[in-house]
Write a structure and sequence with these properties.
Blueprint: E1 2-8, H1 11-14, E2 49-55, H2 59-70, E3 75-79, E4 92-93, H3 95-102, H4 107-114, E5 123-127, E6 134-139, E7 156-157, H5 160-173, E8 177-179, E9 193-196, E10 199-205, E11 210-218, E12 221-234, H6 241-245, E13 250-253, E14 263-268, E15 273-279, H7 292-303, E16 311-318, E17 322-325, E18 329-330, E19 335-337, E20 343-344, H8 351-371, H9 378-411, H10 416-428, H11 436-452, H12 464-478, H13 488-493, E21 535-538, E22 547-549, E23 560-565, H14 569-584, E24 588-595, H15 603-611, E25 617-622, H16 632-635, E26 643-646, E27 652-656, H17 664-676
Parallel strand pairs: 2-3, 2-12, 3-9, 8-9, 12-19, 23-24, 24-25
Antiparallel strand pairs: 1-15, 1-16, 4-7, 5-6, 10-11, 11-12, 13-17, 14-15, 17-20, 18-19, 21-22, 21-25, 23-26, 26-27
Helix pairs in contact: 2-5, 2-8, 8-9, 10-11, 14-17
Length: 680
């Protein structure tokens, strides 16, 4: 179990402007609660059943509500807490999540403008105290991470509570109401409400809907209200009520490790904002042992000098698990889990929030396809088919990364396995017969011995043992065997092997198991992969100089597929077939004709003639950075005679590596039937 303290200060160490303050009220953050006395303004929607109800207003629930609203799906959100947490919590946003945010009306760019300068967070620094000797440092950013070659955006470092503020603003821009329970009447939800202080206490799934009972405090008394919805999504965190009420079990390892060293995360050096993670060993220790004053003294010891401007904002315990829900979808595809409700990772590598955001991105278009009548409810089960293996993979990677983190204290003589064994003996073994005070004294003695391993008397080049340990530590860092922050191959290169896609014979191969070390991303057009990024130039008259990413060719406000072809006769025939079949399946398809840079003359006229009377197409040209850059089809490891069909979530649903010789109409019917799970 770990223990988190959220701290403001350290200005005398980092020369930030001194500041001592408590967080202002939520309303001062620019998101005032609205006393919703009536929902009568939803006059054009009289159905008493809400299409989607989301329980949990963390980043995952808020992102899902934004995505659904942009897709035209009415949803409401319940949040148990009466106000949003000010605890920084997650802070690393990986490439793929930033790509999702890039499509949310410039959210990624807003995060990049607001985040601390990269030089203030790119390194992990290992030291015995903030004023003591530096044992080593690891730079987690490489030059290519800033060049936007594999992605249109970069990773970011941005505290979760700040992200939630921005997400709430995006919801408000979409006419969502953020409401407290006071003054609410009993009218059915119409969509577009985020209700604070509402706790789900009961669910009952019927054949066509889910009935939810929510409890809230109103005029000093707890009041229950019933809400009917077609789909219930639990994004309510690691201790998910929805998961428990649905009877879904977690599988994996509980209570993985105890922290041995203090970990200080600088969430914002300029603001003097830090999170300190320290060991917490119940039952010998309790939350009462860590008062703000006690935590302040721990901070002073860590800093190594007196400070006058420390403000301990929040203190909370946490337990490290590595578990994945046995299923993500239940009750005839009516109840769905996402984010921490579906998977609980060690924090190493920042996979928790990022995996959850990508859960929401995978799920949103499928819910929209079902609600709009494009696909049957079985499309929702492909969410579990695709995302659960990713969660299991990321769990293994997070555990590997956590164990790499523990290699550092082990190298310094603080073996985590020994410490945990001793604690278990004290708690459950022979030590359990000792009085609690004596148990605590033994635990304190262990801490004292551990701290002695980090003393400058021992840990220096003149001491034989200390010199040997420092040499081993340097090798650990040089070989990349310590805690890692970036995993480009996993962040961008994860692939769905089955689900709402058609695997081809070339792509049916096992994923490379996690190594726990950084590996570079290699673009792939395998079905299930995320569409490779390349800058392309629009060839329409009004946008002749505009360059965008291939990822930006998919809109975020409709369930639309994108078919990439080259300007070849057979490919145009395939595109016409795709457009005809898509109309039959009541789904939108846009055709993207990708022209080589040197052959764009007459592109618009040729495509217009070949695709008439269809108009849902776009001509683009490769915008190569240099003559040595790969062409689009080479990067996709295909010839230009092939075609790539991309889903609304920017993952590849199907590809043809060469031209289609059979009837293209029959082929596209087979493709859309398999992807959308529609019987023909």
């Amino acid at each position: 179990m770990g223990f988190l303290g959220f701290i403001k200060g350290f200005s005398s160490v980092y020369r930030a402007k001194p500041r001592i303050r408590a967080y202002p009220s939520f309303c001062q953050h620019g998101h005032c609660y609205i006393q919703c006395r009536t929902f009568s303004h939803f006059k054009d929607h009289d159905d008493s059943v809400l299409p989607v109800l989301i329980v949990g207003a963390g980043p995952v629930g808020l992102v899902l509500s934004i995505l659904l609203t942009k897709l035209g799906i009415k949803c409401s959100v319940l949040e148990k807490s009466k106000s949003f947490s000010h605890h920084p919590q997650a802070h690393f946003i990986n490439n793929r999540s930033m790509e999702v945010f890039h499509k949310l009306d410039g959210l990624a760019e807003e995060i990049q403008r607001s985040q601390p300068p990269v030089d203030l967070w790119r390194k992990f620094v290992y030291c015995t105290s903030l004023t003591g000797p530096v044992l080593g440092s690891v730079d987690h950013m490489q030059p290519q991470d800033f060049e936007k070659v594999v992605s249109p955006v970069c990773v970011a470092h941005f505290s979760q509570y700040k992200l939630i503020r921005l997400l709430l603003k995006k919801l408000e821009d979409l006419n969502f109401l953020i409401c407290k329970p006071e003054g609410l009447n009993d009218e059915p939800f119409r969509g577009g409400e985020l209700l604070m202080g509402h706790e789900c206490v009961k669910i009952n799934a019927t054949g066509q809907s889910v009935n939810v009972t929510a409890s809230h405090l109103k005029e000093g008394k707890y009041t229950e209200r019933n809400i009917s919805c077609n789909i219930l999504v639990g994004t309510d965190g690691a201790a998910s009520t929805i998961r428990k009420l649905a009877g879904i079990e977690l599988r994996g390892e509980k209570d993985l490790q105890k922290l041995l060293l203090g970990v200080l995360v600088a969430h914002d050096l300029k603001q003097g904002e830090f999170v300190l993670q320290i060991p917490f060993y119940p039952p010998q220790q309790s939350l009462d042992d860590f008062s703000p004053e006690t935590c302040k003294q721990l901070i002073l010891k860590l800093v190594g000098q007196e400070l006058s401007d420390i403000d301990v904002i929040d203190i909370k315990p946490w337990v490290m698990h590595a578990e994945v829900a046995e299923k993500f979808v239940s009750c005839d595809n009516r109840i769905i889990l996402a984010g921490d409700a579906a998977h609980r990772f060690p924090p190493a590598g920042g996979f928790g929030m990022n995996t959850g955001i990508q859960d929401a991105h995978n799920l949103a278009w499928k819910i929209a396809a079902f609600v709009k009548g494009i696909a049957p409810s079985s499309i929702l089960h492909t969410y579990e088919t695709e995302r659960r293996p990713i969660a299991i993979f990321n769990t293994a990677l997070s555990v590997q990364n956590f164990r790499a983190a523990m290699a550092v204290p082990a190298t310094l003589g603080l073996d985590p396995t020994i410490a945990n064994s001793v604690h278990q003996t004290i708690t459950d073994g022979i030590g359990s017969i000792l009085p609690s005070g004596l148990q605590r004294a033994v635990l304190d003695r262990i801490f004292t011995i551990g701290r002695a391993q980090l003393s400058e008397f021992l840990l220096n080049e003149k001491n034989l043992l200390g010199s040997s340990r420092l040499a081993k530590l340097r090798r650990l860092f040089e070989e990349g065997k310590s805690l890692q922050l970036q995993f480009p191959a996993e962040d961008l290169g994860f692939r769905y092997l089955e689900g709402a896609l058609i695997p081809d014979s070339d792509s049916v191969r096992a994923q490379v198991p996690p190594t726990g070390r950084r590996r570079d991303y290699i673009p792939s057009s395998d079905p299930g992969s995320r569409l490779p990024h390349m800058n392309v130039r629009m060839l329409s008259n009004s946008f002749s100089e505009a360059c965008i990413s291939t990822l930006d060719l998919l809109p975020g406000d409709k369930v639309e597929f994108l078919l990439f072809i080259a300007p070849l006769e057979k490919s145009y025939h395939l595109a016409v077939a795709a457009l005809k079949v898509a109309e039959e399946f009541k789904v939108s398809v846009k055709v993207c004709i990708l022209w080589p840079t040197d052959t764009v003359k007459g592109a618009e006229t040729r495509s217009k003639t070949a695709l008439a009377p269809w108009e849902n197409y776009i001509d683009v040209a490769e915008a190569k950075k240099s003559s040595n850059s790969f062409s689009w089809w080479s990067m996709c490891q295909m010839t230009d005679k092939g075609a790539i069909l991309v889903r609304p979530d920017e993952h590849i649903a199907w590809r043809a590596k060469s031209s289609i010789d059979d009837d293209p109409i029959l082929e596209m019917k087979r493709v859309f039937s398999a992807i959308l799970k529609v019987n023909i």
